[in-house]
Write a structure and sequence with these properties.
Number of strands: 0
CATH class: Mainly Alpha
Number of helices: 4
CATH superfamily: MazG-like
Distance between the termini: 30 Å
Largest sheet: none
Low-confidence stretches: none
Oligomer: single chain
CATH topology: Helix Hairpins
CATH architecture: Orthogonal Bundle
Number of domains: 1
Mean pLDDT: 93
Radius of gyration: 17 Å
Structural class: mainly alpha
Helix content: 55-70%
């Protein structure tokens, strides 16, 4: 994720506005997650798209969520790699016997 964080930072750094404030970014993340949820619902749920609605790919919506999360992380000087490693350690240690294995 370091490379992605670097890419996002280089792009944001060229803009006068810079990173939004953390609460503004949380609103943006919420909006992006909503768009992802809507697309998943259209694809796998009961609500189908109207003929006038654009088709968006789920992977693009996931990427928009990741981009917004990276913006928040960068603005707060967070190391996503370290955070993700910690999250995976929870899976491997705390939750290792929580679910039935295949």
């Amino acid at each position: 994720m370091k490379e992605y964080q670097k890419q996002v930072d280089e792009w944001i750094s060229q803009l006068k506005i810079g990173y939004f404030k953390p609460l503004e970014m949380m609103a943006r993340i919420t909006e992006e997650v909503g768009e992802l949820a809507r697309e998943v619902n259209h694809r796998y749920g009961p609500k189908k798209k109207k003929e006038t609605e654009d088709s968006r790919e789920i992977e693009e919506e996931v990427a928009d969520v990741i981009f917004a999360l990276i913006c928040l992380s960068n603005s707060l000087n967070l190391d996503i790699d370290r955070g993700f490693k910690s999250a995976m350690n929870k899976c491997y240690e705390r939750d290792k016997d929580r679910y039935d294995k295949k």
